[in-house]
Amino acid sequence: MEKHEHGEREYEKHDDGALIQQGLSYYRLMIVWLVDLVGGFRLPLPSVCPMIFACMPEHFIEDAMELLLFASRIPKALDGFLLDDFMNFIIIFMASPSYVRNPYLRAKMVEVLNCWMRQRSESSAMAALFEGHQLALQHLVHNLLKLYVDIEFTGSHTQFYDKFNIRHNIAELLEYLWQIPSHRNLWRKIAKEEMKGVYLNFLNFLINDSIFLLDESLNRILELKEIEAEMSNTAEWERRPAQERQDRTRQLHAQENIIRIDMKLANEDLGMLAFTSEQITAPFLLPEMVERVANMLNYFLLQLVGPQRRALSLKDPEKYEFRPKKLLKQIVDIYVHLAKGDKEEVFPVAISKDGRSYNDQLFTAAADVLRKIGEDGRLIQAFVELGNKAKAAASKAMDVEAALGDIPEEFLDPIQYTLMRDPVILPSSKTTMDRAIIQRHLLSDSTDPFNRSHLTQDMLIPNVELKVRIEEFIRSHQSPSQNQ
C-alpha cells in the first residue's frame, strides 16, 4: 500500500514537472512571436510602438511572467530549460513604458529576475544569465536604473508605498550586479555619459527614499519607546480601560513591523549610496545635487551623534534592523568618498550652508564614536579633515555675508531667499530663480513651481543682465583679499 502511494506521488511530481515544462515552452514561443512584432531581440526598440504589438492583450505577458514566477519557486523546476529568450524579453521591455504601459507588469519582470538571482549559487545556468548573457551585459544595469526612476509615478493611489517594494527588488539586483566587474564598469559609464539624465534622476529618488525611510524609522522608534514607557509603569497601565490597553498594544506591534521594514529598506538605500559613491562621485557634486546630499548626511549625522541620540537607544536594536554603528560608518563613508572626488572644494561649502542640521561639533562627536568602535584611523582622519574644511567654509561664508550687508531682493532666489549665482527665467511664470535651485526642483517635479505649467531644464532662459549686476554687486562689496 505504502509503495503504491509513493509511486502515485512520484508520478504526480513527474506529471507536474512535465506540465510546467510544456507551459514554459508554449510561453517561450509566445514571447518570441511578440518580439518578432517589434523587429526581434535587439535594442533600442523602434521609437513608435507598432500598432500590432500595442493591440496584443496585456495578459499574454502577465501570464508568462506569472508562470515564470511560479516555476522559479519550485526547486529544480527550471533545470534544463533554456531561459535566454525570457531573459532577452525582460531586459528589452522592463524599461519600455511606451510598449508595456502597466508599471506593475514591468515590476513583475524584475521580480522574476530577483528569483533567478537568488538561485545563481545553486545553478551555473542562472548565474550565466546575469554574468555572461550579451543583452544583460549591455543593457541590464541601465534598464534597472531607468525602471527605478519610472516607478515613482505608477498612476495608482497607492503609488507612494508601492514603489518601495518594487525598488527593493531592483536594489537587490543592482547590488549583486555591482559586484560583477563588467556590470560595474557599465554602471560607471552610464553615470558619466548620462550624468544629467537617467543617472541623476536615479540618484535623486534614491536620496529621497533614503531620507524618508530613515526619518520615518527614527520617528517611529521614538513613538515605540513612548508606548513601551507607558506599559512599563505597571500600576498606571493596569488602571487604563482594557480597550485602550488593547489598542496601544496593537499600535506597538504595528510600529515594530513598520520600523523593521522601513529600516531594512533604509539600510539598503544607504548601502547603495555608500558603495557607489566610492567609485562614482561627479553626479553627487553637481550644483543641483550637492546641497541635497550634504543636507541629508548632516541630518542623519545629527540624529545619530547629536544631543537626542540617547532617545533612540533600544533594548534589542537588531530586532528592528536598527544598527546605528553601521549606519554611522556608511554615512561617514559617503562623506569621505565625496570629499576625495571633490576637486573644486564644493562639498565642504555645501555642508556648511545647511542651516538646519550642520554643526561642526557633530564631526568631532562622530569621530569619537568611530574611534570607540575601532574604525580605520585613515577614514577617521579624512572625515575630521572634511569637518575642518566645512568649518572654515562656514566662517568664510559669514565674513562674506557680513561684507555684502543688505542684499537687494531682486538678487535673492524667491524660494530659498539666498543670493542667486546663476539666475534663470522660467518661461511660463516669467519668474527668475537660481539655476541650481530650480534644477533641484525639476528632478522630482517637471512643473513651474509658481503656476504648475510644464517645465524642463532645457526651457530655462539665462537672465544674463541680472547675473552681470549680481556679480558687480558682489565685487563692489568684497575686500581686495576676498576678490583674490
Structural class: mainly alpha
Radius of gyration in whole Å, from Cα? 27 Å
Portion in helices: 55-70%
The largest sheet has its strands arranged as: 2-1-3
For the record, give the distance between the C-alpha atoms at the N and C termini, rounded to a whole number. 97 Å
- Main beta-sheet strand count, sense and barrel state: 3 strands, antiparallel
- How would you sum up the global shape? globular
Number of helices: 20
Task: Say how many strands there are.
Answer: 3
The residue ranges in which pLDDT falls below 50 over 5 or more consecutive positions are 1-12
Task: Please indicate the percent range of residues in DSSP E strands (runs of 2 or more).
Answer: under 5%
Order of helices and strands: HHHHHHHHHHHHHHHHHEEHEHH
The mean pLDDT is 90
Task: Summarize the helices and strands and which ones pair or pack.
Layout lengths: L1 H35 L14 H4 L4 H14 L11 H10 L9 H16 L5 H8 L2 H17 L8 H20 L2 H13 L4 H35 L1 H6 L2 H36 L9 H19 L18 H18 L4 H7 L7 H13 L4 H28 L18 E3 L6 E3 H8 L18 E2 L1 H14 L2 H4 L1
Antiparallel strand pairs: 1-2, 1-3
Helix pairs in contact: 1-3, 3-5, 4-7, 5-8, 7-8, 7-9, 7-10, 8-12, 10-12, 10-13, 12-14, 13-14, 13-15, 13-16, 13-18, 14-17, 15-17, 16-17
Task: Describe the structure concisely.
The protein is mainly α.
Overall description:
By secondary structure, this protein is mainly α. It contains 20 helices and three strands. The chain has helices at 2-36, 51-54, 59-72, 84-93, 103-118, 124-131, 134-150, 159-178, 181-193, 198-232, 234-239, 242-277, 287-305, 324-341, 346-352, 360-372, 377-404, 435-442, 464-477, 480-483; strands spanning 423-425, 432-434, 461-462. A three-stranded antiparallel β-sheet has the order 2-1-3. α13 (287-305) packs across α18. It is globular and about 85 Å long. Mean pLDDT is 90; it is low at 1-12.
